[in-house]
């Protein structure tokens, strides 16, 4: 038997359900049928990924325009998928998916509108969030024409290879964004969604959830609050925040119900008393030479 290509210890990353599983999992998990997945692209501004194929199931995370997924099979208006960027599995609405398309640009504004033509006076036909990826076919004046249809303001986008190295600056732009469990867009974010989104703008791939990020990102620092700097990441059991400097933390949190900045020590005291307990680790992702303030 070949080695399993998936981490079976984390069900969030295993493309298998009792009724269907990735063909590479044959012999490793039990399923009614095994299929070879097909690559698809997300073609709507945002779509909920749910644990079960039900519209009232809880939000696990979100897909955004241009995300690539492996699709395994449709059921009751949903498709069982695995995200390419972080390996997360679940059910997306079937209408959210289209043929696989290679993006050329990404959205750098917090949000931008789609228009039926290259004219801001036309009624908007949709919207795109920070980090959405699009395939551009031509430039028409100040607008980019999308392969999927519609136009977006060119000043709100950048070539796919362009990055924002100071991911803390991206987080600062998102201050005030409402807290949303499972949120991954500039309309609503949870703590790990904020970190994942900001790191993606810096060209750094990150897992989706805080415990996965704690295991997979950076190097551990001493578990104290001396010598911290911009870009360091602070973890609790089930929560994460990002340092803006030696003393200030930015995080999406349920206390403020928003992305907020506060003194680290105040946050630590409140979180230890009311929610996630003590800090479990502090990790450094980049060298001092990479920091751009």
TrEMBL record:
Occurrences of domain NlpC/P60 (ranges): 160-286
Stored InterPro entries: NLP_P60_dom, Papain-like_cys_pep_sf, Peptidase_C40, SH3_16
Pfam family, one: SH3_16
PROSITE patterns referenced in this protein's UniProt entry, alphabetically: NLPC_P60
Keywords, sorted A to Z: Hydrolase, Protease, Thiol protease
Highest taxon, organism lineage: Bacteria
One term of GO molecular function: hydrolase activity
Sequence similarity: Belongs to the peptidase C40 family.
Protein name: Cell wall-associated NlpC family hydrolase
Organism listed in the record: Methylobacterium goesingense
């Amino acid at each position: 038997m070949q080695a399993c290509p998936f981490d079976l210890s984390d069900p969030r990353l295993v493309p298998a359900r009792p009724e269907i599983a990735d063909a590479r999992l044959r012999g490793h998990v039990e399923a009614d049928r095994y299929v070879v997945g097909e690559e698809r692209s997300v073609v709507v501004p945002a779509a909920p990924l749910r644990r079960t194929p039900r519209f009232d199931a809880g939000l696990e995370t979100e897909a955004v325009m241009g995300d690539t997924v492996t699709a395994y099979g449709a059921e009751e208006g949903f498709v069982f998928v695995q995200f390419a960027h972080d390996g997360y599995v679940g059910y997306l609405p079937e209408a959210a998916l289209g043929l696989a398309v290679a993006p050329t640009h990404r959205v750098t504004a917090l949000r931008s509108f789609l228009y039926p033509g290259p004219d801001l006076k036309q009624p908007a036909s949709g919207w795109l969030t920070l980090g959405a990826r699009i395939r551009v076919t031509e430039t028409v004046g100040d607008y980019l024409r999308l392969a999927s249809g519609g136009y977006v303001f060119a000043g709100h986008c950048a070539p796919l290879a362009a990055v924002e190295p100071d991911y803390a600056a991206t987080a600062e732009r998102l201050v005030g964004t409402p807290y949303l469990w499972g949120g991954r867009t500039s309309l609503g974010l949870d703590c790990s969604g904020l970190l994942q989104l900001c790191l993606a703008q810096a060209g750094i791939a990150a897992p989706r959830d805080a415990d996965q990020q704690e295991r997979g990102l950076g190097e551990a620092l001493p578990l104290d609050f001396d010598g911290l700097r911009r870009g360091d990441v602070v973890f609790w059991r089930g929560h994460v925040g990002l340092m803006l400097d030696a003393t200030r933390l930015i995080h999406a949190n349920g206390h403020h119900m928003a992305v907020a900045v506060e003194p680290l020590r105040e946050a630590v005291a409140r979180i230890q008393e009311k929610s996630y307990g003590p800090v479990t680790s502090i990790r450094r992702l980049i060298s001092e030479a990479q920091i751009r303030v």
